[in-house]
C-alpha cells in the first residue's frame, strides 16, 4: 500500500510549483545579460536587430580606473563603456587627434569610432569633451578577450610593454609608464595564459578521447572482475591485510627495543623527557632511552588490542566476510543492478541542469538600473538612481560637473524583483530535495532487488523475474511519499549548512573570536547531523523496500535493529570500507599505470598508436579520475547490496529459529558460521 501519502502530495505540489517558478524565471529572465557585455546605456553588445549588432566588443574609456580584470568582468568599472566592432590597434590621444584633424582627417575618423555614438565635433574644447566623456582621453593597443578590450600586454627582455612601448601618453598632459597597469596586466596575462593552456587541453581531449574511453572501459571490466573475485578472495585479502598490520607493528616493537638497548650506556641517554624540557629539534628526543621505551609500550598496547579484537570478534569477522561473498553472489544473479547508477546519474544531471538554468534566469530577471557616476568624490548625488532620458534636464550636472547617468546593474522595484533572493533560496532548496530523492530512489530500488534475492528460499530458482524493475516500480508506485519525506529532512539540514557557509564567507574578517567559535560549532554539529541522517535514511529505505512500511516506522525499526547488532554493524562497516577502498585503489591505480605507460610511449607494441599530445597528463588524469568514479559507481551498488543483506540477515536471526516452522533464509555458508550443520527444510 501507499506510504506517507501527505508527503507524496506535498512533494508533487512542490514539483509543480518548481516548474512554475522556472516558467516565471524564463519569462522575466534574459541570459544574454550574462553572455553579452552591456554598455553604459544598458544595451547588449552584438545583439541582433539593434545598433550594436555589429559591435560585439566592450570598450572602456579609461581602463586605468579599473583595478583588475575581476572588476572588468563581474562589476561595473567607473568609466564610460561603449560597444565597438574592434579594439584599438594603436596609441593615440584626443589632444593630438584634435590638433591634427584638419590635415589628417583619417586619424580623427579612426579615433571617433571609440567616442560616443553620433559625436563628431572636433572643435569642442578638450576640457569639455573629457568632462562630458564624449571621447576617451587616450586609446591604447588592445586585444579582445571575453568580448572586452584589454591592453595588449607583452614581456620583452623581462620588461612589461604594450605594443613594444614602455610608456604612453594618458591624454591629460602626462606620460605614464606601462607599469601603472601592472596589477591589471598580471591578472590579464594569467587569464590569457590559462586560455592558451585551455586550448591545448581541448586539443589533447580531441585527439585522445577514444583512448580515454578505452581506459574507462578497462576500468569497468576490472571493477566487474573485482566484484566477482570478492566471492573467493574477500577473506584472503582481509586476513593478508590484518596479518600485515600485525607484522609491521611487531617489527616496530622490535626496532624500538633495539634502539632502547643500543642507547644503553651512552652518556645522556638515561635522561628523562622532563629533564630536558621542550625542544624544537625533535631529534633530541630520539637520543633518549625513555622515548623508545614509550614507543615500544604504545606499540605493544596496540598489538595486544588488535590480537584481542581478532580473538573475540573472529566470528563476527567471519560473518562480515561471508556477507561480502554473499553480496558478490547476489550481484552475479542480478547483474542489471550494476548499471542502475546510470539512472541515478541521469536524474541528478537533469536536476542540476534545471537548477542551473533557473538560477541564471532568476539572476537575470531585472530591468536596467542607472546610477549617477560622478568624478567628484563629494558629489551628494553619487550612486543615486537616475533616468538617462531626463538626466540632462536635472540640476545634477550643474552641481556635479562631469556627472553621468550610466548603467549600473539589473534589478527592479516590483514585487517579483523584491523576492528574487527568496526565489533563489527556494530554487536551491527544491534542488537539494530532488537530488536527495533521486539518491533515495536508487537506494530503495537496489535494496528491494537484493532483498528479493535474500528472501528467496531456493537461490536462484525463487528469485522473482526482473527483480530490479519490479523493485523500481514498487518504489515509485507505493513509496514516493516515504522517499520524499526522508529526502526532505536531509535537504533541510543541507540548506542550513549552505546558509552557515554563506554567513561564514560574508562575515569573514569582521567577526570576533566568539562568533567564529559559534559558527564553527554549528557547522560541525550540522555536518555530524547530516552524516547521521544519511546513515538512518539509507537503512530506513532498506526496511521500506523489505516491508513496505512508512518512513518513520522503517527508520525506527532499522535503528533499533542495528543497535541490537551494533558490534556486527561496526565490524561489517569497517571490513566493507577497507575492501571497497582497496578495490578502488587497485582499479584506478592499475588503469592509471597502464595509461601512463601508454601515453608516454613505453609500450613498444602501441608506440605508433599514441597520439601527439601537448600534455600527456591531461588524458592520464582523466583516465585515473574517471576510473576511480567508475569503480565507485560499481562498488556503491555492492555496498548497498551488503547493507541490505546484513539487515535481512539480522531480521532472519530474530524472526526465525531454523526450525521446520521457521526456517532460516540465509545461505549455507552463513549457516555453517552460526554452527548449523545443514539448512532446515522449509515447511510445506
UniProtKB/TrEMBL annotation:
Q: Where in the cell is it found?
A: Cell membrane
Where is this protein chiefly located?
membrane
Membrane topology, as annotated, equals: Multi-pass membrane protein
- Molecular function per GO: antiporter activity
User: Which residue ranges does UniProt annotate as crossing the membrane?
Assistant: 5-27, 209-229, 236-254, 292-313, 333-357, 430-457, 478-500, 512-529, 578-599, 620-640
Q: Which UniProt keywords apply?
A: Antiport, Cell membrane, Glycoprotein, Membrane, Transmembrane, Transmembrane helix, Transport
**InterPro entries, per database record:** Choline_transptr-like (IPR007603)
* CC terms in the record's Gene Ontology section: plasma membrane
Q: Name one Pfam family in it.
A: Choline_transpo
Q: Which reaction does it catalyse?
A: choline(out) + n H(+)(in) = choline(in) + n H(+)(out)
Q: Which PANTHER family match?
A: CHOLINE TRANSPORTER-LIKE (SLC FAMILY 44), CHOLINE TRANSPORTER-LIKE PROTEIN 5
Q: Tell me, what does this protein do in biology?
A: Choline/H+ antiporter. Choline transporter.
What is stated as this protein's family in its record? Belongs to the CTL (choline transporter-like) family.
What name does UniProt use for this protein? Choline transporter-like protein
Q: Which gene encodes it?
A: Slc44a5
Amino acid at each position: 500500500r501507499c506510504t506517507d501519502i501527505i508527503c507524496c502530495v506535498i512533494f508533487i505540489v512542490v514539483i509543480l510549483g518548481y516548474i512554475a517558478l522556472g516558467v516565471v524565471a524564463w519569462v522575466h529572465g534574459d541570459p544574454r545579460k550574462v553572455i553579452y557585455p552591456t554598455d553604459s546605456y544598458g544595451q547588449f553588445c552584438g545583439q541582433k536587430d539593434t545598433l550594436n549588432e555589429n559591435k560585439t566588443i566592450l570598450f572602456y574609456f579609461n581602463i586605468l580606473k579599473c583595478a583588475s580584470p575581476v572588476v572588468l568582468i563581474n562589476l561595473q568599472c567607473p568609466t564610460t563603456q561603449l560597444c565597438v566592432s574592434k579594439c584599438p590597434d594603436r596609441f593615440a590621444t584626443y589632444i593630438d587627434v584634435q590638433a591634427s584633424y584638419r590635415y589628417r582627417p583619417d586619424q580623427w575618423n579612426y579615433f571617433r569610432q571609440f567616442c560616443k555614438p553620433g559625436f563628431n565635433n572636433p572643435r569642442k574644447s578638450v576640457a569639455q569633451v573629457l568632462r562630458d566623456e564624449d571621447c576617451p582621453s587616450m586609446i591604447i593597443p588592445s586585444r579582445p578577450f571575453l568580448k572586452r578590450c584589454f591592453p595588449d600586454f607583452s614581456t620583452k627582455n623581462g620588461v612589461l610593454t604594450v605594443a613594444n612601448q614602455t610608456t604612453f601618453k594618458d591624454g591629460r598632459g602626462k606620460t605614464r609608464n606601462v607599469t601603472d597597469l601592472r596589477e591589471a596586466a598580471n591578472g590579464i596575462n594569467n587569464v590569457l595564459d590559462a586560455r592558451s593552456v585551455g586550448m591545448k587541453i581541448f586539443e589533447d581531449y580531441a585527439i585522445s578521447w577514444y583512448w580515454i574511453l578505452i581506459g574507462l572501459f578497462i576500468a569497468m571490466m576490472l571493477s566487474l572482475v573485482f566484484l566477482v573475485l570478492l566471492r573467493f578472495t574477500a577473506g584472503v585479502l582481509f586476513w593478508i591485510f590484518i596479518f600485515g598490520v600485525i607484522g609491521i607493528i611487531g617489527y616496530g616493537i622490535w626496532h624500538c627495543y633495539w634502539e632502547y638497548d643500543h642507547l644503553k650506556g651512552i652518556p645522556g641517554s638515561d635522561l628523562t623527557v622532563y629533564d630536558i624540557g621542550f625542544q624544537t629539534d625533535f631529534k633530541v628526543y630520539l637520543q633518549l632511552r625513555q622515548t623508545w621505551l614509550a614507543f615500544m609500550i604504545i606499540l605493544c598496547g596496540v598489538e595486544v588490542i588488535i590480537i584481542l579484537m581478532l580473538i573475540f570478534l573472529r566470528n563476527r569477522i567471519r560473518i562480515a566476510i561471508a556477507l561480502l561473498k554473499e553480496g558478490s553472489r547476489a550481484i552475479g544473479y542480478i547483474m542489471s543492478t550494476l548499471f542502475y547508477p546510470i539512472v541515478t546519474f541521469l536524474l541528478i544531471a537533469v536536476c542540476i541542469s534545471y537548477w542551473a538554468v533557473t538560477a541564471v534566469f532568476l539572476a537575470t530577471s531585472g530591468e536596467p538600473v542607472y546610477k549617477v557616476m560622478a568624478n567628484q568624490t563629494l558629489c551628494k548625488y553619487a550612486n543615486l538612481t537616475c533616468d538617462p532620458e531626463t538626466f540632462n534636464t536635472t540640476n545634477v550636472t550643474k552641481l556635479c560637473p562631469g556627472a553621468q547617468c550610466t548603467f549600473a546593474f539589473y534589478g527592479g522595484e516590483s514585487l517579483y524583483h523584491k523576492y528574487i533572493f527568496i526565489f533563489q533560496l527556494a530554487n536551491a532548496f527544491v534542488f537539494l530535495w530532488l537530488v536527495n530523492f533521486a539518491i533515495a530512489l536508487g537506494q530503495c530500488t537496489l535494496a528491494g532487488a537484493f532483498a528479493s534475492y535474500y528472501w528467496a528460499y531456493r537461490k536462484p530458482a525463487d528469485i522473482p523475474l526482473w527483480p530490479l524493475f519490479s523493485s523500481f516500480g514498487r518504489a515509485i508506485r507505493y513509496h514516493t511519499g516515504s522517499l520524499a519525506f526522508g529526502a526532505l529532512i536531509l535537504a533541510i539540514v543541507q540548506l542550513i549548512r549552505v546558509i552557515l557557509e554563506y554567513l561564514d564567507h560574508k562575515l569573514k574578517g569582521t567577526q570576533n573570536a566568539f562568533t567564529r567559535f559559534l559558527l564553527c560549532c554549528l557547522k560541525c554539529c550540522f555536518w555530524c547531523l547530516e552524516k547521521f541522517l544519511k546513515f538512518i535514511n539509507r537503512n530506513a529505505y532498506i526496511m521500506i523496500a523489505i516491508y513496505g512500511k512508512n518512513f518513520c516506522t522503517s527508520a525506527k525499526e532499522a535503528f533499533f535493529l542495528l543497535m541490537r547488532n551494533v558490534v556486527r554493524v561496526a565490524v561489517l562497516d569497517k571490513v566493507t570500507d577497507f575492501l571497497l577502498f582497496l578495490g578502488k585503489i587497485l582499479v584506478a591505480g592499475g588503469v592509471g599505470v597502464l595509461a601512463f605507460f601508454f601515453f608516454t610511449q613505453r609500450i613498444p607494441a602501441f608506440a605508433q598508436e599514441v597520439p601527439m599530445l601537448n600534455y600527456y597528463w591531461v588524458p592520464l588524469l582523466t583516465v585515473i579520475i574517471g576510473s576511480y568514479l567508475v569503480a565507485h559507481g560499481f562498488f556503491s551498488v555492492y555496498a548497498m547490496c551488503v547493507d541490505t543483506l546484513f539487515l535481512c540477515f539480522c531480521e532472519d536471526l530474530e524472526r526465525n529459529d531454523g526450525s521446520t516452522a521457521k526456517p532460516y533464509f540465509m545461505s549455507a555458508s552463513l549457516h555453517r558460521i552460526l554452527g548449523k550443520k545443514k539448512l532446515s527444510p522449509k515447511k510445506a
